[in-house]
Specification:
With 166 residues, the chain is an all-alpha fold. It folds into 3 domains: 2-38, no CATH class; 48-105, DNA polymerase, domain 1 (Orthogonal Bundle), CATH 1.10.150; 115-163, no CATH class. Helix content is 58%, strand content 2%. It has helices spanning 2-19, 24-38, 55-58, 66-74, 81-88, 94-101, 115-118, 126-134, 141-152, 154-163, and strands at 48-49, 104-105. It has a two-stranded parallel sheet. The chain is elongated and about 40 Å long.
Length: 166
């Protein structure tokens, strides 16, 4: 029942956000409190950095318990999302890993990360990520974000800032 309530609240939140409704804050607050009640992390653009998140933060991911949180930590630092997939593939299936990826990311090195790691940016597909890789080298973070805007649009460029390595 809680899953259904969560789905309904999140769907309403997205719908109301798209419509610009002033009730959005109330629905969002309801979704946030339900997430807290469930003890799980919602799927958002702001994900956990696999190289810096704590065990406690990992355990907010649906389906991650003590053992998987330990496994996430054991293989650090992650250089690519492919490395994460390969290491976690020793313990869980691809569908489970894909679910984890809704909540975590490997920081993107603008001039070194592979296309699959770059493709973690919301709204960017693998073909777009391959385009970005082919445009290297980038002078700096801003040049990379500008290229993301060119390839995938403004929304992706806003999300890209969340996933860049420092």
């Amino acid at each position: 029942m809680k899953t259904v309530r969560l789905f309904v609240l999140m769907t309403l939140t997205l719908s109301m956000t798209a419509c610009g409704s002033k009730e959005t804050a109330e629905v969002t607050a309801g979704a946030d409190s339900l997430q807290t009640e469930l003890g799980t992390r919602p799927v958002t653009a702001e994900k956990l950095n696999l190289n810096t998140a704590t065990k406690e933060e990992f355990m907010t991911i649906p389906g991650v318990g003590e053992r998987m949180a330990r496994e996430f930590d054991e293989y650090r630092p992650y250089a690519s999302i492919v490395q994460f997939r390969n290491e976690m593939g020793k313990y869980v299936d691809e569908a489970t890993i894909a679910g984890y990826e809704d909540h975590v990311y490997v920081p993107i090195d603008i001039n070194a990360s592979d296309a699959e790691t770059v493709a973690q940016i919301l709204g960017l597909d693998l073909a777009g990520a391959e385009q970005l890789v082919a445009m290297r080298p980038f002078a700096d973070r801003e040049a990379f974000v500008a290229a993301v805007t060119e390839v995938a649009g403004g929304i992706s460029s806003q999300f890209s800032r969340l996933y860049l390595a420092e």
